[in-house]
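Mlr4654 protein
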Amino acid sequence: MIREIETVTLFGMAALAALVFTTSAEAAEMAFFVKNLRKEAVAVELFSRDRETVWPGNDQVFLIDPASQKSVPLSCNQGEHICYGAWVNGNDSISAGVGPDNDQLCDTCCFICVEHTTETIDLVP
């Protein structure tokens, strides 16, 4: 009888583990192509709207020189909403998107994570 209970328990744990792994978000690789059309360098961060994740993270930013561009690849969850925040390097009162603190409203600065896609962000003066 004890052996039967152990078998049922192991089977139940295996089924639970399979359920956890099949319901997790599917990872996707995508990129953002950021064009800085300003005369000043800008700092950029990407924020997930669906979880507490920021790219590049660890209190770092993507720094983009004046009149230049940068491709920013990232791993995200398929279907995840990602918004950008940008600001003039050294002066975060001049910002775009959701801003440096991810607290500004913006209808056109969020994208959906889709495998093998590239979204373009134009930072204009």
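thats it. The first helix runs from residue 2 to 23. The first strand starts at residue 27 and ends at 36. bye
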